[in-house]
Amino acid sequence: MNPFSSGTRLRDMIRSIRACKTAAEERAVIRKECAAIRAAISENDQDYRHRNLAKLMFIHMLGYPTHFGQMECLKSIASPGFPEKRIGYLALMLLLDERQEVLMLVTNSIKQDLNHTNQYIVGLALCALGNICSAEMARDLAPEVERLLQFRDPNIRKKAALCAIRIVKKVPDLAENFINPAASLLKEKHHGVLLTGVQLCTDLCKISDDALEYFRKKCTDGSVKLLRDLANSPYAPEYDISGIADPFLHIRLLKFLRVLGQGNVDASDSMNDILAQVATKTESNKNAGNAILYECVATIMSIEDSSGLRVLAINILGRFLSNRDNNIRYVALNMLMKAITVDSQAVQRHRTTILECVKDSDASIRKRALELVYLLINESNVKPLTKELIDYLEVSEPEFRGDLTAKICSIVERFSPDKIWYIDQMLKVLSEAGNYVKDDVWHALIVVITNASHLHGYTVRSLFRVVQTAGDQETLVRVGVWCIGEYGDMLVNNTGVLHIEEPLTVTESDAVDIVETAIKRHSADLTTRAMCLVALLKLSGRFPACSQRINDIVNQYKGSLVLELQQRAIEFSSVVDKHKNIRSTLVERMPVLDEDTFSGRRAGSVPAAVSTSKVAPLDLPNGGGKVIDAPLIDLLGFDVPEPTPDHDNHHNLINVNVSPTSSPPGPNHAHNDLLMDLLTIGTPPAQNSSSVPDILSPNQDKLSSINILDQLSSPAASVEGKIPPASSPMLDLMDGFGDSPSNPQDNGSAYPSITAFESSSLRVTFNFSKQPGNPQTTIIEANFENKTSNSYTDFIFQAAVPKFLQLHLDPASSNVLPSNGNGSISQRLRITNSQHGKKSLVMKMRIGYKMNNKEVLEEGQISKFPPGL
Amino acid sequence: MGIRFILMVNKQGQTRLAQYYEYLTIEERRALEGEIVRKCLARTEQQCSFVEHRNYKIVYRRYASLFFLVGVDNEENELAILEFIHLLVETMDRHFGNVCELDIMFHLEKAHFMLEEMVMNGCIVETSKSNILAPIQLMEKAS
């Protein structure tokens, strides 16, 4: 029975799939087929195995899972007949990949087939090995492949060569075994063997320096001769493509010469002549010829300097660039990118052409050209080139604008010769494509503006003009509103007019108008509106005459549903209304932002500030900067790249307390969520799942868990057997998870205060109370007392609780703790126990402060909460 | 390794042949095929035959209703791949006689056999049509 002619049922399946009108129909057909195939597999049906495999390949191509057929491939390969093997190997290559363990089972079959007497079967096995072999198989089968490199039939040798490439890439140690056989492949006549042999040599050179050294010494002349013979060879119909003998071999050889010539003057010298010949003699009116020229140029650009050849290469690229075929222009741009490091002057000569390509209708060409222009720009040509690009921005297609805008902004930032030019260009970009400008770009613009004090008036007037014409560009409006708020007086008084400016008369109410328009525009987002409100507040200080009108505008946002706007509106309105005496000092100009700090921070891309400031009053600069001190990061497992043992413990610890899944955020638990977030930052879920069970199964891992906890809470024994149950924090913790406390108490009843934590330097007491009608929630009044004679500064209290608890921390009364108990800090905590009546409270706490400017950390576990909380 | 994958796709965007030379899960394949097919099919005849997508460069060529898409890495010579696609089509033409979408669909395994003789592990093995077709013809003769 022939597997390929008996494909009727396969045909039927393809037909019925083709007939499907919807994806759902197709899935149904496939499901039915897969069920039938599974049944056949379980019955070990041999007659139809090949057909089932063919079907599976088709199903796999359509993108459905076919893993259940993997064993069938192996059986098919193991069968004696050629057709079965043929389809088995094909299915193996399609359905399996080197990652599957099943593959190990096939090693033996492949080994047998590599030694088969039928050379076609040997070819099949080589092909499969070359496509999917893993490192283990490579080690096992390398000797066979090495032997097959000298097989009598060239069709086997060529496949063995490619197989060898896969093997040495998987196991680079094996490279030296292949150096000699590879070199001998270069003496062959058969094109297929040469093609793959040259490829093998090239890859060996990339893997092993010894190989490179060897081939450079022994094969450079030989390869040059091969290329020369090929270039001069008479017509060979089998390998001829549009009048050129085997362009594929040409290209391989040129690539090989590139590897040999790179960084070696002698080798480069010896290939000069043939490269010149290829570069000048190759026909350039057909694609095949151009492919060779393209490769030749790449080789000339990479090998050691020979100025004559470089001129030739750049000229070829110039010809390519002016070609009408878009493919040729594309590769020319591609190559010019590489050439720019070698000879930027020569590339600069083609600047105008390249700039034209930026405006091409073809997205691929535009992208290449834009990247090239970006590399071409330097201090001397930045002005005209930027002008061209910005002019083009006006007419470019929407999908290209994002890229283009980003590049222009980056160019302007990198090369701006002076600030006024920078500001001018940025305003143009903002007014053309403000919606594509990234946040950090306009932030940087504002930093530059604040630093250019002599340009404040000029900038605010320019912005005033453009915002009126391009008010739909969000970022432009933001920058404009910000500047009008800051420098509104300069706008009205025409302060610092430059001689290039046209005169502009703006009244105070014009300035307010523009902010009002911005805030009322329906598409304005929260940031813009909030910025508008700030600007209005500032203007009310600058233009006292307008303050009533400003108040009216602000008042409209008192009822805003957006909390941020509502709050600003209410607060600002009271500033305008009731605090006229402090208003002018309040709305003074922003201090100048330091450019170096800003750019440094931008380059370092500091991770977004974690809002610890809400948990405890930490003096953080607004919106980022020095985030948190290192020990805190350690404890919380904040993005720890290489966990030291210590980190590990903390990780685990935190995982006990904080669930892998975040609890549903209630309206009042913002702080708690922050803390949750804080605790889970940088801890991937996978880790959670592995470490939580560790701690929850005391039987297996008690010892390690205890050790973990020991490090944190001081007085505990470390050996399992000796733990006095009451004092062991571990067991207490387990209690917290497992026990059901006995007596749920009434609402509002009093609970005894506890000393939650006491060390030689610090005492923490907790007072408890409950709100009537809400038995789940406990309010804890935490009091911190300093037992030493030094006062503590930067005092922070932090707490973490298990998943069933929700914790809300109010701000502390202070962050300075005076010495000798002469005062205390109090902080309110609200804990909601979702398992109220079943589990009692547990808490992990940490306190950080500075004593004599030295940072001190204390941490502990609080488990002796009164029952019934 | 230059060639990362070879796809044959019809005008409607249905995959007719897919051969990958690097590991991608089925889901990744489906997503990738969808993305690049959308990108390539939207392009006009005049535009160049190269599309950059993710970290691949797609070299594609259209023959009647069938698109041939070859994904390569950055080192590969795009023009040579274009020539390779043509060689592939000529080879199939020689075997099937004016190859069409249905030939490939109903003789998927043969199309793969040809491809296997031409490309191994992402490298071109053989460029002579008669050498490529010899084993397949031999097999047909035997059956």
Alpha-beta content class of chain A? alpha+beta
Summarize the amount of helix of chain B as a percent range.
Answer: 40-55%
Order of helices and strands of chain B: EEHEEEHHHEEH
Q: Any idea what the shape of chain A is? A: extended
Task: List the strand order in the largest sheet of chain A.
Answer: 3-4-5-8-7
Largest interface: which pair?
Answer: A-B, 72 and 53 residues
Main sheet makeup of chain B: 5 strands, antiparallel
- Give the rounded overall mean pLDDT of chain A: 80
CATH topology assignment of chain B: Beta-Lactamase
Structural class of chain B: alpha+beta
Give the tally of β-strands of chain A: 10
How confident is the prediction overall: mean pLDDT of chain B?
91
Which structural traits does this protein have?
heterodimer; A: 869 residues; alpha+beta; Leucine-rich Repeat Variant; three-stranded antiparallel sheet; 10 strands; disordered N terminus; B: 143 residues; Beta-Lactamase; five-stranded antiparallel sheet; 5 helices; 46% helix; protein transport (chain B)
Your description of this structure?
- Chain B: This is AP complex subunit sigma.
- Chain B: It comes from Oldenlandia corymbosa var. corymbosa.
- Chain B: InterPro entries: AP_complex_ssu (IPR016635), AP_mu_sigma_su (IPR022775), Longin-like_dom_sf (IPR011012).
- Chain B: Belongs to the adaptor complexes small subunit family.
- Chain B: It is found in: Endomembrane system.
- Chain A: One of its GO terms (cellular component) is AP-1 adaptor complex.
- The complex is a heterodimer of chains A (about 850) and B (about 140).
- Chain A is α+β, with helices and mostly antiparallel strands.
- Among the domains of chain A are: about 1-95; about 100-205, Leucine-rich Repeat Variant (Alpha Horseshoe), CATH 1.25.10.10; about 210-280; about 420-585, no CATH class; about 755-860, Gamma-adaptin ear (GAE) domain (Immunoglobulin-like, Sandwich).
- In chain A, about 60% of the residues lie in helices and about 10% in strands.
- In chain A, the strands form 3 sheets. A 5-stranded antiparallel β-sheet of chain A has the order 3-4-5-8-7. Chain A has a 3-stranded antiparallel β-sheet with strand order 6-9-10, with helices on one face. In chain A, strands 1-2 form a two-stranded antiparallel ribbon.
- With about 140 residues, chain B is α+β, with helices and mostly antiparallel strands.
- Chain B has one domain (about 5-140): Beta-Lactamase (2-Layer Sandwich), CATH 3.30.450.
- Chain B has 5 helices and 7 strands.
- Chain B has a 5-stranded antiparallel β-sheet with strand order 2-1-5-4-3, with helices on both faces. Chain B has a two-stranded antiparallel sheet with strand order 6-7.
- In chain B, helix 2 (about 80-95) packs parallel to helix 5 (about 130-140) and helix 4 packs across helix 5 (about 130-140).
- The longest helix of chain B is centred in the middle third of the chain and has 19 residues, at about 80-95.
- The relative contact order of chain B is 0.16.
- Classes of the chains: A alpha+beta (about 850), B alpha+beta (about 140).
- At the A-B interface, helix 1, helix 3, helix 5, helix 7 and helix 9 of A face strand 2, helix 1, strand 3, helix 2 and helix 4 of B.
